[in-house]
Amino acid sequence: MNERNEEIKKKIKKILDKDRYQHTLGVAYTAACLAMRYGADMESAITAGLLHDCAKCIPTDEKFRLCSKYGIELTEFEKKNSALIHAKLGAYLAENKYGIEDRDIIDAVRTHTTGEPAMSLLQQIIFTADFIEPRRDQAPNLSEIRQMAFEDLDRAVEKILYDTLNYLGKKKDAPIDPATRKTYEYYSQLVVAETED
Ligand code: DGI
Ligand code: FE
Ligand code: FE
Questions:
Q1: Which amino acids bring their CB within 6 angstroms of ligand 1?
Q2: Closest CA relative to residue 153, chosen from 120, 109, 108, 107
Q3: pTM over 0.90
Q4: For residue 124, how far is the Cα from the chain centroid?
């Protein structure tokens, strides 16, 4: 990886706990592989992978304080489900603390948890890498999705969203973010349209 990414890697190691750091490296390298496969910029994929969870280990009350301090607007859903805040706050920190100027990288961090309709290639890569990186072991259909990620990225994104909605739907106290649902609707229609081509 390039010098900028080496620097970010060192900084990120200091602010994440051990498990989150290992997960982060997994996402960065998986994103690099997907970038190779789909012709995205590899170093940008590594940067976005390294930074995607940079706000994850901030205590919840501190997350709210920082959002208010920096004028980051939270949706009603995010206010009630604080596990989602690290994506938006992470995007802000990527831009303002880590000095990232590339809007695509910042967006990839911002959308890595729920996705959004019509994501860029890099956004899709980070969304997918977060789900399939080697240390992940909980989700069903992981081996199928891992293979699909390198065959058809739109379909992999759709499948990840489908399984996530299913998983959250079964879980108690896990309401579904409207953003996740909207992203799923977009990608399920896209996959149908691509199959018909
Ligand atoms: O940060 P990671 O653990 O690597 O993964 P993530 O950013 O995809 O997810 C972070 C958390 O957000 C995880 O606990 C699951 C949760 N989450 C994702 N989508 C939704 C959600 N929680 C709710 N309630 N609703 C969602 O739609
Ligand atoms: Fe995350
Ligand atoms: Fe993550």
A1: 23, 53, 56, 81, 83-84, 112-114, 130, 164, 168, 174-177, 180
A2: 120
A3: yes
A4: 8
Instruction: Please report which helix (H) or strand (E) contains residue 144, including its range.
Output: helix 142-149
Domain boundaries of the chain, sorted by first residue: 3-196
Superfamily classification of domain 3-196? Hypothetical protein af1432 (1.10.3210.10)
For a ligand 1 pocket test, name from 23, 84, 135 the mutation site with the most ligand atoms within 8 angstroms of its C-beta.
84
pLDDT in tens, 75-89: 999 999 999 999 999
196 Cα to the center of ligand 3, angstroms: 33
Amino acid making up residue 55: A
| Cα distance between residue 29 and residue 27, in whole Å | 6
CA 38/CA 4 separation, integer angstroms: 23
